[in-house]
Amino acid sequence: MISNTARPKAVFIMWLQLQLQDKLLTKDRLLKWESKVEPQCMLCQNEDETRDHLFVKCAYTRRLWVGLATWMQMSYDIGGNWQHHLAWVLKNAKEKTIRAQIFKIVYAEAVYALWIERNQRVFEQRTNGVDRIIRTIAFICNVRASSKTSPLVQSWLV
Fold it and tell me: Reverse transcriptase zinc-binding domain spans which residues (predicted)?
């Protein structure tokens, strides 16, 4: 996802999530070193937290991806499978279109927002709803959009 104008910290977290194959310190990885960690996902409270669960299978996350896809006038019909999710990301990011440029920003900011939401729930006991996160991502994308991509982002904000 080269040429991404998302915030550098968002691009870095996305890079850890995508490129280094499971290098974020999700609870399943922390449990290998520290047995005092509760394995439960803090976003849905239903399953153990893994990279695949946190970013694809979790009900909270799925609502986020569906909401963002709807906002971008796309479809997200991934069946909770990491490989299908990754294929969806690569398909939508590889083109040189304005839509693909926006998708890269949205994806990086969404991964970062999920990671921040997870950490706020773990360490600060603060929660945000999916709609609020979508609005925040839309705002950030509008602010970070280039002069070429800005009109399309703004048309989605209506």
Answer: 4-65
Residues 6+ apart with CB under 8 A from 4: 11, 14, 104, 105, 108
Global confidence as pTM = 0.84
Q: Is residue 13 part of a domain?
A: no
Per-residue burial over 38-71, b = 16 or more CB atoms within 10 Å of its CB, e = otherwise: eeebbbbeeeebbbbbbbbbbebbbbbbbbbbeb
| pLDDT, the chain, mean | 82
Higher pLDDT, residue 143 or 66: 66
Tally the domains of the chain.
1
Owning domain of residue 98: 38-157
Q: What is the mean pLDDT of residues 120-130?
A: 94
Question: What is the spatial distance between Cα 106 and Cα 111, in angstroms, rounded to a whole number?
Answer: 9
Q: Is residue 82 part of a domain?
A: yes
The token duo for 46 is 């239903």
Contact assessment for residue 40 and residue 137, using Cβ atoms and an 8 Å cutoff: no
9-21 pLDDT per residue, tens: 677 666 666 665 6
What's the CA gap between 128 and 105, in Å, rounded?
Answer: 21
pLDDT at 36: 82
Does any domain span residue 21?
no
